[in-house]
Amino acid sequence: MKSTRSPRKAAAKPSVPRDESNVERLYLELRDRAMRYEFKPGARINEKLLGAQLGVARATLREALNRLVAEGLLEFVMNKGFYRKAISVNEVFDLYQVRIALERQAVLLAVQRAPDEEIAAVRAYWVDVMRRSDQLATADLVLADEEFHRRLVALSRNKELTSFIDIVTRRTHVARHVDIEQLSSWNLQAFNAHLEVIDLIAQRKTEEALQVLSEHIDISLKRAIEITKEMVARFFLADGAESLQVVEQAAQRSQEQLAA
């Protein structure tokens, strides 16, 4: 008698989930290197060597590198590979303008939405930083300043704003380090402006808070030109990247924009 039983299907091979945590850890490691310009500006990244150093597969490495391209820290050239973006005064200038727009919107929303206790917590954080500022290394002071601005934007209770400001912060990290390293009367003025802005938010004085914030970042914007030239001299751009002469020309264009 012929069997009526259906033939048994071959068991499907279980899928192997991609280890998202490995990609995330690698991305954070490479992001940190890119922020510190351990990858020379304008230079091509040797994927084979980097993969061997980190002990990761090429596919995993490329996924992490592509995330840095999306953030603007690296660029990808077809048929050539990944490059650390060259230092550009125009880019730094543009990023500071983006920062002004994002933080102004954050302050506007913070006045409307932030509870008094959250505003007070941000103020207390910065007061503590200033109390310890003489003992803080430049790198720690930069991180503290970035954290203040992150907390300020978080008062808006808008997660997308916070996400975008984090990207801008990472891309201007070295510029901020150069800026604060050259500690001057303007830096002290800028740090005092932090408290002024947060106090005006607490008082729900929108226009005054926006004015102080804009003036604070606008000074950074004007200093960005000199900061970028210092970065060019410091990192010795690779052949084919922007020369100091090109930076000077871009600086002139930026100054003309400010004067207009």
From TrEMBL:
PROSITE patterns according to UniProt: HTH_GNTR
InterPro entries per record: GntR_C (IPR011711), TF_FadR/GntR_C (IPR008920), Tscrpt_reg_HTH_GntR (IPR000524), WH-like_DNA-bd_sf (IPR036388), WH_DNA-bd_sf (IPR036390)
A Pfam short name: FCD
DNA-binding is among the record's keywords: yes
Domain HTH gntR-type: 20-87
SUPFAM superfamilies in the record: GntR ligand-binding domain-like (SSF48008), Winged helix' DNA-binding domain (SSF46785)
Key words, A-Z: DNA-binding, Transcription, Transcription regulation
Keyword Nuclease: no
Highest taxon listed in the record's lineage: Bacteria
Protein name: GntR family transcriptional regulator
